[in-house]
Design goal:
The complex is a heterodimer. Chain A is built from 14 helices and 8 strands. Chain A is an alpha+beta fold. Classes of the chains: A alpha+beta, B mainly alpha.
Amino acid sequence: MMNCKDIENSLPLYLDNLLSPADKRAVEEHLKSCPSCAKALAQLQKTGRLVDGLAEVEPPPWFKQKIMARVREDAKKKSFTQKWFYPLRIKVPVQVFATIFIVVIAVYIYRAGDEQMKEVLPPQAPTPVMEAGKEPIPQQTEKASEAVTTTVTKEKVASRKDTRDEKADIYDAFSGVAAPKIKEPKKEIPQKNISAGAADMAKVMKADVSADKGRAKLASIPAKKAEAEQVAVPPYASIERKREGYTSDAAMKENRAPEVQSMIPKPTISVHVANINTAVGEVEKLLTKYEAKNIVKQTSAGKVVISAEIKTQKVKDFITQLKIIGRVEEKELPIISNKYDKLLVIEILSD
Amino acid sequence: MLFWMSNIIDSKKAINDEDLEYVVLCQKGDTDAFDVLVERHQKKMLNIAYRMMGDYDEACDVTQEAFLAAYKSIKKFKAEAKFSTWLYRIVVNYSKNRLKQLRNITQREGVSIDDSGEMKIEGVMCQSSANDANPGAQMEKREREAQVQKCITSLDEEYREVLVLRDIQGFSYEEIKDILKIPEGTVKSRLSRARNALKDCLVKVIGDL
């Protein structure tokens, strides 16, 4: 038997016809005998009607457009984020590889540029020379009297300079100025083109020869001069080194000129030609053709000495080809050789 | 992907959700497809929010937020229930969260939310029934509706939501169970208490019904 409280709790479900038939019958019987529960049912029905009567509200104008504007804005933002940051499992490795690639390319370009810079930059003179003085050159008589005081070092250094510097040198020697100022010499001989270099070399050589003669006259003690010539690098000497086709290396290697010169033995082949400059070029081409290594060229008064290592089996052919260039005179000196190569020292002389 | 799509299609067959076609398009990134879904559900969404909150402007804001949240997480919709059910659950939860926020603000500032809500309700009622012929009867009706809404708003949220969904929006017990994710028995018991509580409130406010 249900009491009023139970009936009251069951009334909403009774209205929705959700009670079991037994409960429904029990409620109906109770309602017949209980006016307060019947009143509660009537109130519930009235409440239902009031709730049912609630009007629906309409969305404000442009409500859908406002929503869609926000949705589209969000979609745009999302697609931008996805584009740049998702999926990370793909983006990150791609970015890492791209960075590595850029770094490698940058290093490669930097190095290539460095090589090119070496070619472009003028070669530096191998040894420091004395600064050319601006003062007028003293009289010849004064030079003669003071020449005794010149040192072997000064003689050696001065011998490497051009005629203009030569005059200044002579002045320094006579004035006895100690500790001459060292300066970077200007480019003396172009290194890029060997044949052009040879031509320039000839000009410089002539000038230096005259300067050397002048100095010889000035020197009152021949023994001193002889000593100087023996010790010093021969005047106007300039050594080019061409190794494995890298002409740009010549500029750097020039600093080692004295060492290279001391390594060149006496000539094993003499070639007598009409024009040294042309012949030098032809010999160099020939050496290149025969895959000669460690080609070292030395220019001196009236001759050019070229040393090169050439494969033993190619020596004969090379000498045959050399005979086309000029009159070849093979000297009976022991040829330095190792298992595969022979060192040939070719002296190119003018007829 | 194919597996997932086939799941969706199977669910479509089972539930017969006419929204699902557009939902799938949205999931593929078609923003315009969402326009159709907004058009279909905006009024119901707004009315649920309005009856839950009792404030028209707040209801508009909450509805907008709910739609935006639905779009953001539409890829998570697995078609286990109807899309509309999923959408209404979002708006109910957003309404409850907003009410909680407003309650906290009211407690801090000492302002009654009901008073301001009542004014706005009256404003909306004026707007919605401006074209009616009998101004006196309409005024009385508006007043009565405001009283009913005030009583609805005074109910506990767990009673309010079942009452709104069942008696105002007319959802079935099954749908309410899905929307609120509570057992059907709980829906019935809560609805029973909600109706009795509303009746008691209306008796207090109006007098003898």
